[in-house]
From TrEMBL:
Name of the featured protein: NnrS family protein
Superkingdom of the organism of origin: Bacteria
Transmembrane segments: 20-42, 62-80, 92-109, 115-137, 144-168, 180-200, 235-254, 266-290, 296-315, 327-349, 355-376
Pfam families on file: NnrS
Keyword Membrane part of the UniProt annotation: yes
Alphabetically ordered keywords of this record: Membrane, Transmembrane, Transmembrane helix
Length: 392
C-alpha cells in the first residue's frame, strides 16, 4: 500500500487541505444563492443569459452546480481514506475548485462565447475523475473505479444539456437533466449503502444494522435498470420498475432502522433522507400512471433525498475529518428540521391549502434557512485547521 504523502501540519487557512473543505463550503453557499435566484426568476419571469429555458437553468445548477460539488468533495475526501493515497490538495485542489466556481458565474455574463460557457462547465466532472482515478489506480483499489464511469455519465448528461442550448441537438437537454438526477440516486444507492449503516452502528450504541444479502446484490443493478427503463418512456414498465426499486430501497432501510436512531441527529437525518428515495420511487410509479405530477416525484428525490442526505453527510464528515467530536449543536438540529419541513412541503405542495407559488416560496425559504444555519456553524470548521493541528 502506498502511504499518504502530505504535510504534517496545517497552514492557518486550511480550506484547500482536503476536497470536502472547499466543495462543502461553496456547495452550501450555492444551495442558498442558486435557490434564491431561482425563486426570483420564477416569480418575475426573468431568464438567464445563456439558458433560454429558466427551468433548465434551475435543474442544471441544482444538479451540476450544487449536488455535483458535494459529490466531488466527498469523493476527493473518501478516496484518500479508501486508498491511503493522497488526493489533490493545495494548488491542484484550488484549480479544480476554480473550474466549478467560474462555471457558476459564466451564464450570467453577457457577450461570452456560448461554447466557452459549455466547455468550462463540462470540465468539472472530468477533472474530479482524474483527481480520484490516480490514487485508485496507484493503490490497485479497483473496486472504487465504479465512480469513474459514473462521473463520465455525469459528463455525458451535462453534454446533452449544452448541445441543445448550443443548437447542435434537439430534445436532449431534459433527458440529460433526468439522467443526471437518476445518476445522483445511483450514487446515493452505492455510497448510502456503505456509510449509512456504518454511521448508524457507530453513532448509536447497541444498534446493529441488518444487511440483507439479496438486497445488496440486487439494488444497484435494479436501480441502473430502473434508470434505463425510465428514460424509455414506457409508462407500464416505469411503474413496474419503480415499484420494484421502491420495495428494495424500503426493505434495505428497514434493516438499518431502530427507534434508537432518534437519539443521534447525525443518524436520523441520513435515514430520514434515505426514506425519501423509496417515497420518490413510489411517486414515480404513480406519476407514470397519471395519478400525480412527475414534479412531485422529482422533488421527493431532490429536496427530500438529496437535500437531507447531503446536509447530514456534510455535517458529519466535516466534524470527523477535522478531528472534532461527532456531536451537533441545537442550531444544526434546527437546520435538519427546517430541511425536513422544506421537503415535506415541496412534495405535498399541490395538496396544501395555500397557493402554489406561496408553497414554493415557503419550501424554498426553509431550504435556504437550513443551509444558512449550516454555514454559520461550519464556515469556521471548513476553513480552519483540524482541532488536533494535523493536515487534513
Amino acid at each position: 500500500m502506498i502511504s499518504i504523502n502530505e504535510p504534517r501540519k496545517s497552514p492557518p487557512f486550511a480550506m484547500f487541505n482536503l476536497g470536502f473543505r472547499p466543495f462543502f463550503l461553496l456547495g452550501a453557499i450555492s444551495a442558498v444563492v442558486l435557490l434564491g435566484i431561482w425563486l426570483v426568476l420564477y416569480s418575475s419571469g426573468m431568464s438567464v443569459q445563456y439558458y433560454s429555458n429558466t427551468m433548465y437553468w434551475h435543474a442544471h445548477e441544482m444538479i451540476f452546480g450544487f449536488t455535483l460539488a458535494i459529490i466531488g468533495g466527498f469523493l476527493l475526501t473518501a478516496v484518500r481514506n479508501w486508498t491511503n493515497v493522497q488526493t489533490p490538495f493545495g494548488k491542484p485542489l484550488m484549480l479544480i475548485t476554480a473550474v466549478w466556481f467560474i462555471a457558476r458565474f459564466m451564464p450570467f455574463i453577457p457577450g461570452l462565447p456560448e461554447w466557452l460557457i459549455a466547455v468550462v462547465d463540462l470540465a468539472f466532472a472530468p477533472v474530479v475523475a482524474v483527481g480520484i482515478a490516480i490514487p485508485i489506480l496507484r493503490s490497485a483499489n479497483y473496486r472504487n473505479l465504479l465512480f469513474i464511469p459514473i462521473l463520465a455519465a455525469f459528463f455525458i448528461a451535462n453534454l446533452m444539456v449544452h448541445l441543445e442550448i448550443l443548437g447542435i441537438t434537439e430534445n436532449t437537454a431534459l433527458k440529460g437533466l433526468h439522467v443526471a438526477l437518476y445518476l445522483v440516486l445511483l450514487v446515493i444507492t452505492v455510497i448510502g449503502g456503505r456509510v449509512i449503516p456504518f454511521f448508524t452502528e457507530r453513532g448509536v450504541e447497541g444498534v446493529t444494522c441488518t444487511r440483507y444479502a439479496w438486497i445488496e446484490k440486487s439494488i444497484i443493478p435494479a436501480t441502473a435498470i430502473w434508470l434505463a427503463v425510465t428514460l424509455s418512456g414506457f409508462s407500464t414498465l416505469i411503474s413496474i420498475a419503480s415499484v420494484i426499486v421502491c420495495v428494495l430501497s424500503f426493505v434495505r432501510l428497514y434493516g438499518w432502522f431502530s427507534p434508537a436512531i432518534f437519539k443521534n441527529p447525525l443518524v436520523w437525518i441520513l435515514q430520514l433522507g434515505y426514506l425519501f428515495i423509496p417515497v420518490g420511487f413510489a411517486l414515480t410509479a404513480l406519476a407514470s400512471a397519471g395519478l400525480v405530477s412527475s414534479s412531485i416525484a422529482i422533488h421527493s428525490f431532490a429536496v427530500g433525498g438529496i437535500g437531507l442526505i447531503t446536509l447530514g453527510m456534510m455535517a458529519r464528515v466535516s466534524l470527523g475529518h477535522t478531528g472534532r467530536p461527532l456531536a451537533v449543536t441545537p442550531m444544526i438540529v434546527a437546520a435538519f428540521i427546517l430541511m425536513t419541513l422544506a421537503a415535506v412541503i415541496r412534495v405535498s405542495i399541490t395538496h396544501l391549502p395555500i397557493p402554489y407559488l406561496a408553497g414554493l416560496h415557503l419550501s424554498g425559504t426553509l431550504w435556504m434557512l437550513a443551509w444558512i444555519l449550516f454555514l454559520i456553524r461550519y464556515l469556521p470548521i471548513l476553513i480552519k485547521p483540524r482541532a488536533d493541528g494535523l493536515f487534513g
